[in-house]
Fold these 4 entries.
Entry 1:
Amino acid sequence: MARLKRDERVCPFCAETIKAAATKCRYCQSELTPLVEPEPETKAEPEPETKSEPETKSKPEPEPEPEPDIVVEESSNAPKRTVPSLQDVLLFMRTRLTLVLAVLVVLAATAVGVSWYRAEQGSPAVAPNGALVGDDARTQVLVAAADLTQRTLSYDYKTLANDMEVARARMTPSFLKEYNGTMAQVRPNTEKNKIVLEAVVVSSAIIKATEHRATVLVFVNQTTTAGTGKDRNQQLSRNSLVLTLARGEGDWDVSKLAALG
């Protein structure tokens, strides 16, 4: 309960203490009907001069008894304005931070679970930017690059048709068309001069690799043997190649092969 003075009352809209003569609440700005009329201002008239009289002893006037304070119960239905304390603000911030951390933990656990599942299923691990990560996955790219380079560049005049079929099995349609055009020009000279071409990859490095496409720098030693017996001629050349691999749901295939320099 709040103690009100005689010239005060409670706003029926916001339950704040205001003057009894107020026509608008200074808290909620609600229009009000004044309970008492404001006293009109009057100019003080000068007191008439009185002749001084001899001082006489008089009995002291009794002091007026203090008026009792009016006690008004606050309405339980009236809206109350509360200002959040520092403890409430800290509790709110701690709750929000806990929720954020919980979400991050769930996301991290999901990422770990997906990586584990992909590893168990033999799927390569991929970074958020799409790059292929993990030693096993990158090693598979290098092994495939060496194998496919040697298949594509190696052939023997005695087994030329079979060698070409082995190479064609691991090519994309676009590169297969290019390979067939090249071998159509090389085949007559290979069979006529009894040429054996052997390519051996001595080193390789991944330039860029994603789950479905990889670019690899390959260093190759190529030995070309022409003729047989005493007329046999053999030459060794060292080449640097850029091999592009593509993969759908299965193995890596040759997509492009270009020589450097």
Entry 2:
Amino acid sequence: MSALVNYVRVSTSQQGRSGLGIEAQRQTLARFAETEGFEAVSEYVEVETGKGADALDRRPQLAAALAEARKLKCPVAVAKLDRLSRDVHFISGLMAHRVPFLVAELGRDVDPFMIHIYAALAEKERALISQRTKAALKAAKARGVRLGNPQLAKARTFATARIKADAEKFAANVLPVIREAQKGGAASLRAIAKVLNDRGVRTARGGKWAAPQVRDILLRAS
């Protein structure tokens, strides 16, 4: 059986997506090796984005897979072409390492030229999708459609209101102590803060008082 070096990659934002997870890629590569008569001699797993012209510098596992494949004179296999990269220039650069790549979803007989073609088509499709998305968002905005996640906006509004209510409630509880300190002769913000600290009163976050926190309470009361 011919040797094969497997390379699996996920980005932190893609680990849970169907078809792109580590186990899904492993299963695809295992079926490919069994069908095509290969034996996977090693596997390199990378958690890293595929973006950027310097992507190989930030992907040590891919560099290690290339080195081992060059030593064993065997191909590097990936489940999907975009596990190498979504950038045709980057894939072209990989070809310069003179290590053959096999893409399980494309089959064993796809030559390097066709891999370039598939990469170019994928890159072009991404560009078109991006253009269409931007155009659709621009048109929706022109029609007065509110963009964004309404549930997220609602949650943020609720959280902001809750924080404000808690702050006002805390200020109302502390204000009588501050007034008492003022009546006792604490004329400055720093002096009031010292009285609060001496009495063991904590700020809303559980810390010690300083002049700015006292000022905030007084501003709320004004």
Entry 3:
Amino acid sequence: MKKSLLSALIITIALAFAFTTSVSAQGRGRGGGGGGGRGASPGGPPSGVGVDRGLGRSSDASMGRSDKGRDNASTRSGGRSDAGLERARIASDNLRAADNDLRRHPNLASDMHVNANDLRADYRAALAVNPNLKFGQFVAATRLAANLGDRNPNITRAAILNGLANGDSLGRTLRNLGWGKDEANAAVKRVETEIKNSKRRS
């Protein structure tokens, strides 16, 4: 009887110990799984890696667009700015040459019955439209308009300057305004002679 009770007690203790060990193991398993879910599992990526990687790609992509946009805007703006600066430089050089011409040859203005300051101001305004316009061309256009405008109202200095801005010569411009080739060439030669005489007398 005593042996039977002792055997039963040993079996009960063994079962209790086995049950406790099983429950403890299950608890650790759940805890490990939960930790893994929170990013502590050594088999998965470290916590936040996926998010950081996504943000990095987003940032890179955004910076790429931003940089490209700035580069494009800078290039476009820089192109306009460079062209504007070049136009201003050419106009400034031409105006400086006109000042020198007027100082050396004051009769260029007086022979057209205008003062040098007015002629310079008119030339400056013309340069704003066509910075490549030479002072000699401007003087010739002014003289042509004075010589021909009374009998031909369509021949004005503005019309002649428009033709020069389009790349046409003085003779071609006059022909476009209705003059024949011989008449146009003769009118241009007359003006060239007048300008030479004005400079010669200065």
Entry 4:
Amino acid sequence: MLVRLFDICFSLLGLIVGFPILIIIYLVGLFDTGSPVFRQERVGRNKKPFTLIKFRTMSVDTASVASHLASSTSITSVGAFLRKTKLDELPQLWNVLKGEMSLVGPRPGLFNQEDLTAAREAKGVFSVRPGITGEAQVNEIDMSTPVLLAEIDAKMISELSISNYFKFIMMTVTGKGSGDRVK
């Protein structure tokens, strides 16, 4: 309950304070790809689908696959900057505010990532809201290793405390972890 309160407060504050940055990135994205906002159906809490919102970092015609399966040639120059600074994640604050995500939790996968979905289901990972960041992200464990990722997600969930919540957020903000790997 306390985590949800923090999620609401921090996502609302982030959207309000970050509004000028969101507008600037949106406008730059119009010139970069013509379609600066990326929406994709993801697996949420209790395996319920939701639409994740991010800034587009890849060309519009890139296949809808996990990042580690996408080609690095799909990433635009603006997209590379957004990924490096993690600014592409800012629109997900809206997903957090709506209650579809948390600031800290397992990164939401795609429905076509069957190995990851099965591994997470076996570990009970879908019992919580997916997150923008978490233990796997700050330790550079991505969706290319589904069993390991599910194990780390389950460990994070079982050990999640208020101090860990803030630790993962601070580690992300200060640049720990490189984000989703692209081949």
